[in-house]
Amino acid sequence: KMNADKVDFDYENNVSNFSGNVNISKDSYTLKADEAKLYNEERRAVASGHVLIKDKDRVYFCDDVSYDFNVRQGVMNNASTVEEIWVMTGSRVEQIENNTIRITDARVSTCSKDNPHFYMTASEILFSPNREFTAKKAIFWLGPIPIFYFPSYTRCLDENARFGVRFGVGSEMGFQTLTHYDFIRTDHVKATVNADYHTKRGA
């Protein structure tokens, strides 16, 4: 299904040109943009301008995108997405094999502000279908201050993850970095080590 304010068809090259309120949908996939081209023979689409992409339960926003309907893989530039409370952005986001998402020049935070108080940057993040991401050259930041560096950092987004890092800010404690590691976990016993950092001591 394809809709737009203006549609032109290039018969010689078998290309459909869409402009203005573009809406292209197929099965669970939806693409909205200001402009788009659909290469019918190749089953490939490119779009630009306020791009929104919805693929099943995941939504992306980006400047432009190229998508191959044959393999259900695409490349987005200057993209962002939200996974529950996690806001992820990157200069390049692409879907690769095994439904894995690769984010280049990534930033991840649970703060939704344009300039988050706390966040992690990484040269690359691989986000797998089992709700786990692995970040390379990960740096954790409190505002403009880098506080931790990990050559590789893996985090499961499930609440029962064995290791986790949370960030926060409050009037009493200031900026906070809260880490935990469950080194014993059974049906009856749970032992956790916490290492926390606060910019203020509190009352």
Envelope shape: elongated
Distance between the termini: 60 Å
Number of helices: 0
Oligomer: single chain
In terms of structural class, how would the helical and strand content be classed?
mainly beta
Proportion of residues in helical segments: under 10%
Q: How many beta-strand elements?
A: 15
Largest sheet: 12 strands, antiparallel
Q: Which series of helices and strands comes N to C?
A: EEEEEEEEEEEEEEE
What's the overall average pLDDT, rounded? 81
Low-confidence stretches: none
Computed Rg: 21 Å
Percentage beta strand: over 45%
Give a short summary of the structure:
With 203 residues, the chain is mainly beta. It has no helices and 15 strands.
Structure description:
It is a single chain. With 203 residues, this protein is mostly beta strands. Helices cover 0% and strands 72% of the residues. The chain is built from no helices and 15 strands. The strands form two sheets. Strands 1, 2, 3, 4, 5, 6, 7, 8, 9, 10, 11 and 12 form a twelve-stranded antiparallel β-sheet that branches. Strands 13-14-15 form a three-stranded antiparallel β-sheet, with no helix packed on it. A hairpin with a 2-residue loop joins β11 (132-142) and β12. The termini are far apart. The relative contact order is 0.08.
Key phrases:
3-stranded antiparallel β-sheet; 12-stranded antiparallel β-sheet; mainly beta; 203 residues
